[in-house]
Sequence to fold (155 residues):
Amino acid sequence: MNILLAILGTGLAGSFLALGAAANAQLKQTLHSPLAAATINFIVGFSVLTLLMVLGVFKSDNLDKLSSVPWWAFLGGLLGAIFVTLQTLIVPKLGLTTTTLAVVCSQMIVSLSIDQFGWFGITPHPLNTSRIVAICLLLGAIALTQLGSGKKLKI
Fold:
C-alpha cells in the first residue's frame, strides 16, 4: 500500500473517531446512560460488520484458526467497549478537542513503549528525540486547550 494512501486512510479513520465520540455523547445525553450509549454503538457496529460478512464484502475463510489466536488478541473488543464508554462520559466534560488530544497523547505514549520493546509481535522501532518532542508537544496542546477553555485544571 502506498504510504500516502495509508496516512490518508488513517486520518479518515481518526476523523470517524471524533465524529463517533460526538455522536456517542449525544446518545448519552438523550438516554442519560453512558452504558446504553456504548451498547447501542457496539450493536450498530456489530450489525454492520455482520451484514458485510453475510454479503461477502469481507471474507471469513480463516475462522477455523480462532483457536490458535493468543488470548490477549481478543482484548480489543473489551478495550474498545471501555474506550467508547469513557469517551462518552468525558467528552461533555472536557470537550471534543481536549478529549481527542488526550486520547492521541496516551496512544502515542503506549505506542512508543510497544515500538521500543517490540511487544505483541510488533517490529521494534527505537525511541528517539523527535518522538519524545512529539509527546511533549501533545502535552502542551492539552494544557493550552484546557487553559483556553477558561476552566481550571484540577489535580
